[in-house]
């Protein structure tokens, strides 16, 4: 298998710690052209999905297709099945040592032991995104975030709602989102990745991305490459944000009014906006 020029001439993407859009591309059998198209999209991170992205009967062939593509000069993440399934070991056997594996997204992570068992099967230093999708996962998220090898946390929103019976109302889901954000920060990880907007719910994309942003999440899973540019834009500092941050720092550097305990946090927030803009090439 060879990698097409479409895949090699892709735009520069940010480091995974800054990735805003995580496109879940089904790891379909003989899917090289689809994988190339995903790489050429606006998504920051491409995740070849050999878990829920495939019917059970297609998983063996999809696993082979993904492994061959990652051995032919291309790079991507792979979402693998949960530790509790027999497919987990088969997934790792297929992709763990392919040269193009950027990292692994572990489905249905529910403990630090899940991270440890998976990390032990991967080359040292391979980043792991823990996909938390259940009540048990939320209750264990601090342990998961602190487990060696865990690089970032993602919210498996659909399965979490199925497990708990919660609605998609942002007020209802504020608690699990806050748990993910706080656990990530306490463990020194990049902010978490929120769940996706469904393909047939594109009209809610901007609103749902704003919810993720206000919750302190800095990325989103993505099921439709057409959603990527909107997510990237809304999870990045705008020109107005950058200008306001610069004016805030200038004002604080030459104070003309009261200088009190609010200055430190205000300065830090403004500086964080400028730092992120610089890392994303927006300044």
Neighbour order of strands in the largest sheet: 6-5-4-3-2-1-8-7
As for the number of domains, it is 2
Q: Tell me the strand percentage band.
A: 5-15%
Q: Give the total of beta strands.
A: 8
Helical element count?
Answer: 13
Q: Determine the structural class based on helices, strands and strand pairing.
A: alpha/beta
- Output the CATH class name of the largest domain: Alpha Beta
Q: Main sheet, how many strands, which sense, barrel? A: 8 strands, parallel
Weakly predicted, low-confidence segments: 1-10
Determine Rg (CA atoms, Å): 20 Å
Give an account of the 3D structure.
With 283 residues, the chain is an alpha/beta fold. The chain has helices spanning 5-8, 32-39, 59-70, 86-95, 112-119, 135-139, 141-146, 157-164, 174-186, 205-214, 228-234, 239-253, 263-279; strands at 21-26, 45-49, 76-80, 101-106, 128-132, 150-155, 193-194, 219-222. β4, α5 (112-119) and β5 form a beta-alpha-beta unit. α3 runs parallel beside α4 (86-95) and α12 packs across α13 (263-279). The longest helix has 17 residues, at 263-279. The radius of gyration is 20 Å and the shape is globular. Pfam families: HpcH_HpaI (PF03328). Keywords: Magnesium, Metal-binding. Residues 38-225 form the HpcH/HpaI aldolase/citrate lyase domain.
List keywords for this structure.
TIM Barrel; 283 residues; catalytic activity; 8-stranded parallel sheet; disordered N terminus; globular; 13 helices; 8 strands; magnesium; alpha/beta
Give a brief rundown of this model.
The chain is an alpha/beta fold.
